[in-house]
Specification:
Length: 313
Protein backbone atom coordinates (compact mmCIF):
# COMPACT_ATOMS: atom_id res chain seq x y z
CA UNK A 1 0.00 0.00 0.00
CA UNK A 2 1.36 3.37 -0.96
CA UNK A 3 0.39 6.88 -0.06
CA UNK A 4 -0.85 9.28 -2.71
CA UNK A 5 -0.92 13.00 -1.95
CA UNK A 6 -3.18 15.31 -3.86
CA UNK A 7 -2.06 18.93 -3.69
CA UNK A 8 -4.67 21.58 -4.39
CA UNK A 9 -3.86 25.30 -4.44
CA UNK A 10 -6.95 27.31 -3.54
CA UNK A 11 -7.53 31.00 -4.04
CA UNK A 12 -11.11 32.20 -3.63
CA UNK A 13 -12.73 28.98 -4.80
CA UNK A 14 -15.71 28.85 -2.38
CA UNK A 15 -18.12 27.98 -5.18
CA UNK A 16 -15.95 25.12 -6.43
CA UNK A 17 -14.84 23.51 -3.18
CA UNK A 18 -17.97 21.47 -2.32
CA UNK A 19 -18.20 19.98 -5.81
CA UNK A 20 -14.44 19.46 -5.94
CA UNK A 21 -14.47 17.65 -2.63
CA UNK A 22 -17.32 15.39 -3.80
CA UNK A 23 -15.30 14.54 -6.93
CA UNK A 24 -12.19 13.84 -4.87
CA UNK A 25 -14.16 11.53 -2.59
CA UNK A 26 -15.32 9.61 -5.67
CA UNK A 27 -11.70 9.34 -6.76
CA UNK A 28 -10.61 8.09 -3.34
CA UNK A 29 -13.35 5.44 -3.47
CA UNK A 30 -11.75 4.18 -6.69
CA UNK A 31 -8.40 3.80 -4.93
CA UNK A 32 -9.18 1.29 -2.20
CA UNK A 33 -5.60 0.01 -2.07
CA UNK A 34 -3.95 3.35 -1.56
CA UNK A 35 -3.84 5.72 1.31
CA UNK A 36 -4.84 9.15 0.01
CA UNK A 37 -4.18 12.50 1.63
CA UNK A 38 -5.58 15.79 0.36
CA UNK A 39 -3.43 18.86 0.89
CA UNK A 40 -5.33 22.06 0.35
CA UNK A 41 -3.19 25.18 0.28
CA UNK A 42 -5.31 28.24 0.95
CA UNK A 43 -3.40 31.00 -0.78
CA UNK A 44 -4.81 33.86 1.30
CA UNK A 45 -8.36 33.58 -0.01
CA UNK A 46 -10.70 36.31 1.12
CA UNK A 47 -13.94 34.50 0.45
CA UNK A 48 -15.21 31.57 2.53
CA UNK A 49 -12.64 29.06 1.16
CA UNK A 50 -10.71 28.98 4.44
CA UNK A 51 -13.83 28.20 6.51
CA UNK A 52 -14.94 25.51 4.07
CA UNK A 53 -11.51 23.85 4.10
CA UNK A 54 -11.34 24.00 7.89
CA UNK A 55 -14.73 22.29 7.95
CA UNK A 56 -13.44 19.45 5.73
CA UNK A 57 -10.32 19.05 7.85
CA UNK A 58 -12.29 18.89 11.09
CA UNK A 59 -14.45 16.15 9.68
CA UNK A 60 -11.84 14.08 7.85
CA UNK A 61 -8.31 13.45 9.11
CA UNK A 62 -7.04 12.77 5.57
CA UNK A 63 -7.80 16.39 4.67
CA UNK A 64 -4.81 18.58 5.53
CA UNK A 65 -4.72 22.31 5.13
CA UNK A 66 -1.99 24.92 4.93
CA UNK A 67 -3.25 28.49 5.01
CA UNK A 68 -1.07 31.39 3.98
CA UNK A 69 -1.00 34.72 5.79
CA UNK A 70 -1.75 36.43 2.45
CA UNK A 71 -1.87 35.67 -1.26
CA UNK A 72 1.52 34.41 -2.45
CA UNK A 73 0.52 33.14 -5.88
CA UNK A 74 -0.25 29.81 -7.46
CA UNK A 75 3.32 28.59 -7.99
CA UNK A 76 4.19 29.26 -4.35
CA UNK A 77 1.00 27.55 -3.15
CA UNK A 78 1.97 24.55 -5.28
CA UNK A 79 5.39 24.58 -3.59
CA UNK A 80 3.93 24.70 -0.08
CA UNK A 81 1.70 21.77 -1.01
CA UNK A 82 4.57 19.55 -2.06
CA UNK A 83 6.60 20.70 0.95
CA UNK A 84 3.90 19.28 3.22
CA UNK A 85 2.98 16.19 1.19
CA UNK A 86 4.13 12.84 2.53
CA UNK A 87 2.97 10.62 -0.34
CA UNK A 88 5.06 8.22 -2.40
CA UNK A 89 3.45 9.99 -5.33
CA UNK A 90 2.25 13.59 -5.32
CA UNK A 91 -0.37 14.86 -7.72
CA UNK A 92 -0.93 18.58 -8.18
CA UNK A 93 -4.22 19.80 -9.60
CA UNK A 94 -6.27 22.98 -9.78
CA UNK A 95 -9.25 23.42 -7.49
CA UNK A 96 -11.60 24.82 -10.11
CA UNK A 97 -12.30 21.37 -11.62
CA UNK A 98 -10.46 22.26 -14.81
CA UNK A 99 -8.19 19.32 -14.12
CA UNK A 100 -10.61 16.37 -13.87
CA UNK A 101 -9.63 14.32 -10.77
CA UNK A 102 -10.34 10.99 -12.48
CA UNK A 103 -7.33 11.55 -14.78
CA UNK A 104 -5.30 10.86 -11.63
CA UNK A 105 -6.21 7.17 -12.00
CA UNK A 106 -4.35 6.95 -15.31
CA UNK A 107 -1.44 8.84 -13.81
CA UNK A 108 -1.19 6.38 -10.94
CA UNK A 109 -1.27 3.49 -13.40
CA UNK A 110 1.65 4.98 -15.37
CA UNK A 111 3.50 5.66 -12.15
CA UNK A 112 3.15 2.00 -11.22
CA UNK A 113 4.63 1.30 -14.64
CA UNK A 114 7.79 3.15 -13.67
CA UNK A 115 7.40 6.76 -14.81
CA UNK A 116 8.64 9.33 -12.31
CA UNK A 117 6.69 12.26 -13.72
CA UNK A 118 3.41 11.99 -15.55
CA UNK A 119 2.23 15.32 -16.84
CA UNK A 120 -1.19 15.91 -18.29
CA UNK A 121 -1.15 17.38 -21.77
CA UNK A 122 -4.22 19.23 -22.99
CA UNK A 123 -5.82 17.74 -26.07
CA UNK A 124 -7.49 21.09 -26.58
CA UNK A 125 -7.73 24.23 -24.54
CA UNK A 126 -11.14 24.96 -23.03
CA UNK A 127 -13.72 26.79 -25.13
CA UNK A 128 -14.08 29.70 -22.76
CA UNK A 129 -10.49 30.78 -23.26
CA UNK A 130 -10.02 33.82 -25.44
CA UNK A 131 -8.34 33.64 -28.82
CA UNK A 132 -5.66 35.93 -27.45
CA UNK A 133 -4.82 33.58 -24.57
CA UNK A 134 -4.71 30.54 -26.86
CA UNK A 135 -2.44 32.19 -29.42
CA UNK A 136 -0.08 33.74 -26.91
CA UNK A 137 0.16 30.46 -25.00
CA UNK A 138 0.87 28.55 -28.21
CA UNK A 139 3.71 30.84 -29.23
CA UNK A 140 5.02 31.25 -25.74
CA UNK A 141 5.68 27.53 -25.32
CA UNK A 142 7.44 27.37 -28.66
CA UNK A 143 9.68 30.35 -27.93
CA UNK A 144 10.38 29.07 -24.43
CA UNK A 145 11.55 25.77 -25.83
CA UNK A 146 13.73 27.46 -28.41
CA UNK A 147 15.47 29.47 -25.74
CA UNK A 148 15.55 27.02 -22.88
CA UNK A 149 18.46 24.65 -22.48
CA UNK A 150 16.19 21.87 -21.24
CA UNK A 151 13.06 20.80 -23.12
CA UNK A 152 9.89 21.94 -21.35
CA UNK A 153 6.74 20.10 -22.48
CA UNK A 154 4.32 22.21 -24.50
CA UNK A 155 0.60 22.61 -23.77
CA UNK A 156 0.86 21.35 -20.23
CA UNK A 157 -0.17 23.09 -17.09
CA UNK A 158 0.83 22.15 -13.59
CA UNK A 159 -1.45 19.11 -13.49
CA UNK A 160 0.97 16.25 -12.94
CA UNK A 161 2.00 13.30 -10.82
CA UNK A 162 5.48 13.29 -9.35
CA UNK A 163 7.28 10.45 -7.68
CA UNK A 164 8.71 11.02 -4.21
CA UNK A 165 12.27 11.18 -5.57
CA UNK A 166 11.27 13.99 -7.94
CA UNK A 167 9.48 15.84 -5.14
CA UNK A 168 12.56 15.62 -2.93
CA UNK A 169 14.72 17.16 -5.66
CA UNK A 170 12.12 19.84 -6.42
CA UNK A 171 12.08 20.78 -2.75
CA UNK A 172 15.76 21.67 -3.04
CA UNK A 173 14.98 24.32 -5.65
CA UNK A 174 14.06 27.34 -3.54
CA UNK A 175 14.09 30.21 -6.02
CA UNK A 176 11.38 32.83 -5.62
CA UNK A 177 10.61 33.42 -9.27
CA UNK A 178 9.54 29.88 -9.87
CA UNK A 179 8.16 28.10 -12.84
CA UNK A 180 7.28 24.64 -11.57
CA UNK A 181 6.86 23.07 -15.02
CA UNK A 182 10.37 24.07 -15.93
CA UNK A 183 11.75 22.90 -12.59
CA UNK A 184 10.15 19.49 -13.02
CA UNK A 185 11.88 19.17 -16.40
CA UNK A 186 15.09 20.37 -14.82
CA UNK A 187 14.95 17.60 -12.20
CA UNK A 188 14.78 14.97 -14.96
CA UNK A 189 13.95 11.26 -14.44
CA UNK A 190 11.66 9.38 -16.86
CA UNK A 191 8.77 11.68 -17.75
CA UNK A 192 5.70 10.77 -19.76
CA UNK A 193 2.64 12.58 -20.95
CA UNK A 194 -0.98 11.57 -20.86
CA UNK A 195 -3.64 13.41 -22.80
CA UNK A 196 -6.80 14.84 -21.35
CA UNK A 197 -9.54 17.31 -22.16
CA UNK A 198 -9.16 20.34 -20.00
CA UNK A 199 -12.58 21.33 -18.75
CA UNK A 200 -13.95 24.78 -18.39
CA UNK A 201 -13.84 26.29 -14.95
CA UNK A 202 -16.77 24.93 -12.91
CA UNK A 203 -17.53 28.27 -11.22
CA UNK A 204 -15.90 31.60 -10.49
CA UNK A 205 -13.42 33.58 -12.53
CA UNK A 206 -9.84 32.70 -13.44
CA UNK A 207 -7.46 34.08 -10.85
CA UNK A 208 -4.64 34.66 -13.27
CA UNK A 209 -5.07 38.13 -14.64
CA UNK A 210 -3.89 37.78 -18.20
CA UNK A 211 -1.50 40.69 -18.38
CA UNK A 212 -0.21 40.60 -14.84
CA UNK A 213 0.16 37.18 -13.31
CA UNK A 214 0.39 35.34 -16.62
CA UNK A 215 3.05 37.70 -17.88
CA UNK A 216 5.00 37.28 -14.66
CA UNK A 217 4.80 33.52 -14.95
CA UNK A 218 5.84 33.69 -18.60
CA UNK A 219 8.86 35.85 -17.77
CA UNK A 220 9.78 33.62 -14.83
CA UNK A 221 9.78 30.71 -17.25
CA UNK A 222 11.95 32.46 -19.80
CA UNK A 223 14.45 34.06 -17.47
CA UNK A 224 14.54 31.08 -15.14
CA UNK A 225 15.52 28.63 -17.84
CA UNK A 226 17.49 30.64 -20.33
CA UNK A 227 20.17 33.28 -20.36
CA UNK A 228 19.88 33.51 -24.13
CA UNK A 229 17.98 36.83 -24.13
CA UNK A 230 21.14 38.34 -22.65
CA UNK A 231 23.18 36.90 -25.46
CA UNK A 232 20.63 38.21 -27.92
CA UNK A 233 21.54 41.71 -26.74
CA UNK A 234 25.09 41.25 -27.98
CA UNK A 235 23.74 40.14 -31.35
CA UNK A 236 21.45 43.16 -31.59
CA UNK A 237 24.36 45.42 -30.65
CA UNK A 238 26.56 43.77 -33.25
CA UNK A 239 23.98 44.08 -36.04
CA UNK A 240 23.19 47.75 -35.29
CA UNK A 241 26.89 48.56 -35.13
CA UNK A 242 27.41 46.85 -38.45
CA UNK A 243 24.48 48.70 -40.04
CA UNK A 244 25.71 52.09 -38.86
CA UNK A 245 29.21 51.26 -40.07
CA UNK A 246 27.80 50.48 -43.54
CA UNK A 247 25.91 53.77 -43.34
CA UNK A 248 29.12 55.68 -42.62
CA UNK A 249 30.92 54.04 -45.57
CA UNK A 250 27.97 54.91 -47.79
CA UNK A 251 27.93 58.54 -46.62
CA UNK A 252 31.69 58.97 -47.21
CA UNK A 253 31.44 57.28 -50.59
CA UNK A 254 28.62 59.61 -51.67
CA UNK A 255 30.45 62.66 -50.37
CA UNK A 256 33.55 61.89 -52.42
CA UNK A 257 32.08 60.51 -55.64
CA UNK A 258 28.59 62.05 -55.88
CA UNK A 259 28.84 65.30 -53.90
CA UNK A 260 25.80 66.70 -55.80
CA UNK A 261 23.47 64.09 -54.17
CA UNK A 262 23.33 64.81 -50.46
CA UNK A 263 22.43 61.99 -48.10
CA UNK A 264 19.11 63.24 -46.76
CA UNK A 265 20.08 64.30 -43.30
CA UNK A 266 17.24 65.21 -41.00
CA UNK A 267 14.80 62.30 -41.39
CA UNK A 268 17.53 59.73 -41.37
CA UNK A 269 19.05 61.18 -38.21
CA UNK A 270 15.73 61.20 -36.39
CA UNK A 271 14.98 57.63 -37.43
CA UNK A 272 18.43 56.50 -36.34
CA UNK A 273 18.05 58.21 -32.96
CA UNK A 274 14.66 56.63 -32.34
CA UNK A 275 15.88 53.25 -33.46
CA UNK A 276 18.94 53.25 -31.24
CA UNK A 277 16.94 54.77 -28.36
CA UNK A 278 14.27 52.08 -28.64
CA UNK A 279 16.84 49.32 -28.84
CA UNK A 280 18.62 50.60 -25.78
CA UNK A 281 15.40 50.71 -23.76
CA UNK A 282 14.58 47.16 -24.80
CA UNK A 283 18.05 45.98 -23.92
CA UNK A 284 17.99 47.71 -20.54
CA UNK A 285 14.61 46.09 -19.94
CA UNK A 286 16.00 42.62 -20.61
CA UNK A 287 19.00 43.22 -18.38
CA UNK A 288 16.64 44.70 -15.78
CA UNK A 289 14.52 41.51 -15.76
CA UNK A 290 17.54 39.46 -14.82
CA UNK A 291 18.83 41.97 -12.28
CA UNK A 292 15.37 42.13 -10.69
CA UNK A 293 15.45 38.39 -10.23
CA UNK A 294 18.94 38.48 -8.72
CA UNK A 295 17.71 41.17 -6.31
CA UNK A 296 14.68 39.13 -5.22
CA UNK A 297 16.81 36.05 -4.67
CA UNK A 298 19.48 38.03 -2.81
CA UNK A 299 16.89 39.17 -0.27
CA UNK A 300 16.44 35.52 0.59
CA UNK A 301 13.04 35.96 2.22
CA UNK A 302 10.89 32.95 3.05
CA UNK A 303 8.90 31.69 0.07
CA UNK A 304 5.63 31.81 1.99
CA UNK A 305 4.26 32.48 5.46
CA UNK A 306 1.85 30.04 7.02
CA UNK A 307 -1.00 31.36 9.13
CA UNK A 308 -2.56 28.08 10.12
CA UNK A 309 -2.25 24.37 9.49
CA UNK A 310 -4.64 21.53 10.11
CA UNK A 311 -3.97 17.80 10.45
CA UNK A 312 -0.28 18.44 9.84
CA UNK A 313 2.29 18.45 12.60
N1 LIG B 1 -4.53 29.99 -7.48
C1 LIG B 1 -3.79 30.20 -6.31
N2 LIG B 1 -3.25 31.43 -6.08
C2 LIG B 1 -3.37 32.46 -6.96
C3 LIG B 1 -4.08 32.23 -8.17
C4 LIG B 1 -4.64 31.00 -8.39
O1 LIG B 1 -3.65 29.29 -5.50
O2 LIG B 1 -2.87 33.55 -6.69
C5 LIG B 1 -5.13 28.67 -7.72
C6 LIG B 1 -6.60 28.70 -8.12
O3 LIG B 1 -7.44 28.64 -7.00
C7 LIG B 1 -6.72 27.45 -8.98
C8 LIG B 1 -5.34 27.33 -9.62
O4 LIG B 1 -4.46 28.11 -8.81
O5 LIG B 1 -6.94 26.30 -8.20
C9 LIG B 1 -5.32 27.84 -11.04
O6 LIG B 1 -5.80 29.16 -11.13
P1 LIG B 1 -6.74 29.68 -12.28
O7 LIG B 1 -7.88 28.75 -12.48
O8 LIG B 1 -7.07 31.08 -12.01
O9 LIG B 1 -5.74 29.61 -13.51
P2 LIG B 1 -6.01 29.09 -15.01
O10 LIG B 1 -6.80 27.84 -14.91
O11 LIG B 1 -6.74 30.20 -15.67
O12 LIG B 1 -4.63 28.88 -15.54
MG1 LIG C 1 -8.40 27.44 -13.82
Amino acid sequence: MSTISLVLPVYNEEENLPKLFAELQKLIAKLPNEEVELIFVDDGSHDRSYEILTGFAQQYPFVKTVSFSRNFGHQIAFTAGIDHATGDAVIVLDSDLQDPPEVALQMIEQWRGGAAVIYAKRRKRPEDESWLKKTTAHWYYRILNRLSDIPIPTDTGDFRLMDRKVVEELKRCREHSRYMRGLTSFVGFPQTAIFYDRHERFAGKPKYKLFKQSLKLALDGLTGFSAKPLRLISYIGFVTALLSFLGIIYAIFMKIFFPEITVSGFTLTIIAIFFIGGMQMLILGIIGEYIGRIYIEAQNRPLYIVKHKMNLD
